[in-house]
Amino acid sequence: MEKNRILHARRIWQWLAAALAITLLTGCDDLKITNLTPSNLPSNPSQIYTFSAKFDIKSRGYVEGSLQPQIVIDGRIHDLQPSPVGPDIYEFDYQIPGNRSQVTYYFLATYDVSFSGKGNMRESYSPVTTATLPSRQVLSMLSNRGPVGARIGIVGQGFTPQDVVTMNGQPTRTVFESSNSLSFFVPAVAPARNYQVSVQGPSGSQVVGAFRVDPLGIEVFPASLNLSQGQTQQVTFTLPQNAPAGGLLLDITTDVPDSVIMSEVVVPAGSNQVTVPVTGGMPGGGALYLTGFGGGEVVIPISVR
User: Fold this and answer.
1) At 35, is the pLDDT very low, low, confident or very high (cuts 50, 70, 90)?
2) Torsion angle defined by CA atoms of residues 9, 12, 13 and 16, in that order, rounded to the nearest 10 degrees
3) Domains of the chain as residue ranges with CATH
């Protein structure tokens, strides 16, 4: 009978020892990780997002200074840094490409505990979390009509440098100004027509609206050029009205590119005239073609001898 009592007592002590070991070796309740990162990350031009969490140590045996907080994002582990927001808060800045719509991550931490002079390392994890990145949203064009060459602004959010504005599917010269603003130059298309404007990029295509291209007359002086090789002559382009905000880009091409040396031609905003130098290159004959003006195209004959 006494022997059975001894065996029973031993089993109780063995069970208590095992329970104590499990309590000491598991850190699930000793470290509380609170995710402070918003579920919808706010848009910004740098495409850099801050992930932060609070690490609250509850273990009485915690070894001061042993906490190593980290984040696992896109399959890679990164060390967190103390945040200026407050104590026990750590953060990490991560740049995410503009073609992403979501990002999945979780926090983890290792730390040391010591009981009765015996130390152990413990590890805790936060739940796996998915955050949503800002998607591109086009609000409106600043103008819904204008001539060929006009610079037109588009406002919205989530724009990237990879976005391109198209008119009826034709890419335009697009300027990325910020994550909230794009602009494009109306290309050399037939006037007196409506065109569908869209924004295309890594995240897909989105229709902005209809844009009407208005005809616009222009005067060119001189009406033709007769140059010697290396000779320079000034050519003046005059509009019947001032150029719109952003200026007016004149789409000028030539069938004799080796014979013509000239820079890009832009009529400044608020002005109706611009003068540019044209220099003769290799001998030849052809023309300069200004598309989108007059009857659709202005032809300036040029000869280089």
Assistant:
1) very high
2) -170
3) 2-132 (2.60.40.10), 137-214 (2.60.40.10), 219-304 (2.60.40.10)
